[in-house]
Design brief:
single chain, mainly alpha, 7 helices
Length: 179
């Protein structure tokens, strides 16, 4: 009887190590939607429908490229197979990479020109990324004043933030969910 008890949990542990994730996480579609929105902004700017300052357009292109690279790396890992017990950690890493890219380019994407305004925007981005607070009010540029883009951008950013700071204890691997 004692042997069967341990054998059952041993088999369950081996299965947990062998199982691979089969579905992309919800934040995957969040990142994909943000990439699509950035591509749309880029297309509108290049077609001169909504002209943007070259610095803003460059920031849009750089952010889109960085998000695409993070998504490509996640896709490669996913195709190789991410073990279930490591999946949540990989999803958080993916969300954190994307979130860091967003905060890196946000001052250029959203803040209006001007030395003091940019300094305030960079300071706010730092505070928001690490402490989830904004201290200064900054003036917004043409892209920042676009209500649809701003709303979608902020929603995507908050979804990624929730994923990064989610603390449900699901990545604890010492028990492997056996008990």
């Amino acid at each position: 009887m004692g042997f069967n008890f341990f054998k059952r949990y041993y088999d369950k542990a081996n299965t947990a190590f062998d199982e691979k994730a089969t579905n992309n996480p919800p934040i995957y579609s969040t990142v994909r939607k943000l990439i699509d929105e950035l591509a749309n902004v880029e297309r509108l700017a290049k077609d001169h429908e909504e002209p943007l300052h070259p610095d803003i357009l460059n920031a849009v292109q750089q952010l889109k490229a960085q998000l695409n690279e993070s998504k490509r790396q996640f896709d490669n890992d996913f195709k190789k197979g991410i073990p279930l017990f490591l999946f949540q950690r990989r999803v958080r890493d993916f969300a954190n990479e994307c979130r860091s890219a967003i905060y890196r380019y946000e001052p250029t994407l959203i803040a209006a020109p001007g030395f003091l305004n940019k300094v305030k925007a960079y300071f706010n981005a730092f505070l928001e990324e690490y402490f989830a607070v904004s201290y200064f009010n900054t003036e917004k540029n043409a892209l920042g004043l676009n209500t649809e883009f701003s709303k979608n951008y902020n929603n995507r950013k908050s979804e990624l933030t929730q994923e990064v700071f989610q603390s449900d204890g699901s990545e604890d691997t010492c028990g492997l969910g056996l008990f």
